[in-house]
Amino acid sequence: xxxxxxxxxxxxxxxxxxxxxxxxxxxxxxxxxxxxxxxxxxxxxxxxxxxxxxxxxxxxxxxxxxxxxxxxxxxxxxxxxxxxxxxxxxxxxxxxxxxxxxxxxxxxxxxxxxxxxxxxxxxxxxxxxxxxxxxxxxxxxxxxxxxxxxxxxxxxxxxxxxxxxxxxxxxxxxxx
Length: 176
What we know:
The chain is built from 7 helices and 3 strands. Strands 1-2-3 form a 3-stranded antiparallel β-sheet, with no helix packed on it. A hairpin with a 4-residue loop joins strand 1 and strand 2. Helix 4 packs antiparallel against helix 6. The longest helix is centred in the first third of the chain and has 17 residues. It is elongated and about 60 Å long. The protein starts with 5 loop residues before the first helix and ends with a helix.
């Protein structure tokens, strides 16, 4: 490996910004690159002032009328997906991989579990259980009755039955 300098790292950071990446993404990529270089004996490549500044934003709080307006424009399956997003607080990738086996209809709980078949691991490798409102569980039961799925099938699959990587874009389109 050639000699790596602070100048190289600053160029990398600059290139990330030139690609249109936001400061938090540049920060995360810089951490990854620096860890790689540290494994190969390169330390102290950046100074405190070299790190991108960013503000950790919190999610907005949606008002009931905003949610109602969004649901009015959604088909029934999309409406259940939107309600599930709001009720569970699941991350995008967690929603993609939730299966019927993860839903505990008796205890009103849904779990985030690893899915080796799709190479999905929960964030920080931590499986967890999240309580759901009874009304959400009722809607999921009706959806399950309508679809009659196998336990290992996804709640919100794409048209081929695989994890849907575009469901959040669909929700955004409906909300817009």
